[in-house]
Amino acid sequence: MTVGPVIRDEATAEFFDGTAAGQLLLRCCPAAHYSEPAAAQCTTCGVTELHWAPAAGGAALVSWAVTDAKAAAGEQSKRTVLVIAELDEGPWWWSQLDGADADDLAVGLRLRVTFRRPSDEHEAVPVFVLAGS
Amino acid sequence: MTRLGKVYGPSSAQFAADAVRLAAADAGLRLAEVDGLLTSSGVTGGISVDLQRDLGLTDLRLLSHLQAYGSTAGAMIQFASLAVMSGTASVVACVFADSPLRPERGASAIYGTRHAPAGWWGLLGASGVIGANPMYALAARRHMLRYGTTSEQLGHIAVAQRAWASMNPAAQLRDPITVADHQASRWIVEPFHLLDCCLVSNGGIAVIVTTAERAAGMAQPPVHVLGWAQSHRGRYLRRDPDFGLRSGAASAGPAAMAMAGILVTDVDVAELYDCYTFTVLLTLEDYGFCAKGEGGPFVASGVLRPGGKLRLNTGGGQLSGYYMWGMTPVSEAVIQVRGQGGARQAEAHEIALVSGNGGVLDHHCTLVLSSDREAS
ipTM, 2 decimals? Predict the structure, then answer.
């Protein structure tokens, strides 16, 4: 499976400007606490003065699950590894892990954020790959 | 309760209205005696305070629509109890109904396509995390990694509940299964097989809440609400070290039992919310039926089977019985406490512990129900 189509709305416009430029933007408060991009206030201290700040891209594996897309006749089914990863800035992120075998995973495994588009007309979506790949 | 399961035709609002009429008749009440109404709806919505008009109820003293996902049913009963204790209302109907099933489409089409492909929800779906299945699978995997819980152990929950369902005429799935059947059922999202996942059902269930004094003169044996507690963790889709390891049951369960003046060892019947087998396992640990992390060996010991030490999800639950969100465990607890469970009736049924869970382990409600006004 690859990523699916998603279109921006008012709340996600700046975030998708970031993914288009190869950045996973988080919300950051004056005390340098990072919150997930949908946060309306700092998840650590509650302040509403938040600015966008890019994640460095490093993450650690928290949990994973595997979907089996139904295969068309004659084709091998495509397994997708879905993960929760802890970004190095603190927030957790839910997406897929590309290019890894589900049998080789372990908690804490180092991952790196990258971006995929289902087609040129759709927004770029953050996904994970193994660090160093 | 209305007919449940693959029942096609009525809208959610019609199921809800029918459920309230049936509950009032069951209690021996005229509908006009209802002076409070709490409504709730499932994935398809379609229910609101307009239900009052559908039922022709006039001059209500309490009316509201609630939504806290799978914890709503327990919360409704808590609020209704507070209302009758304070004199705000005297007879409160609490109802849930849903009608997601259509004859021409499968169950997976309903719960998998909720997210519009725009904005934050669209992003989650575009990332491959579509619906509740992967979210709960990610939770279960954490428990497996931390405590060594296995898919076979989860299978024992599905097998035991199916055995209970075989004795429930209202259950949708009644043919016995084995752990091997569970293991052979197709993957939904690893580590969940098909038989780890709940049903989807159409129908409606309502309960009537009134004072103990008034209930004593009604048509059915009263079911006393001895304890309640809610816990809403507020960590959905956020960093949460407890995700999959501990839920709001760990705080709401002990609080409700303390209010009722009981210990977990006093529980005769446990009706625990089972959107997935894993939810049951986690709730058993959080309520203290076994130690944290020991849920896997505990459920695999045979304790859940009919004739085992624990009477759990005695109607088959949502895995095999019917999927009416929090009203599934509530309804079976009411049946058991009244002693009306037929072939599946628990011999001892003084104390029932009921859980509701929703929002991927983010919302929880616990109720303690009893055949007596005070725990003995």
Answer: 0.95
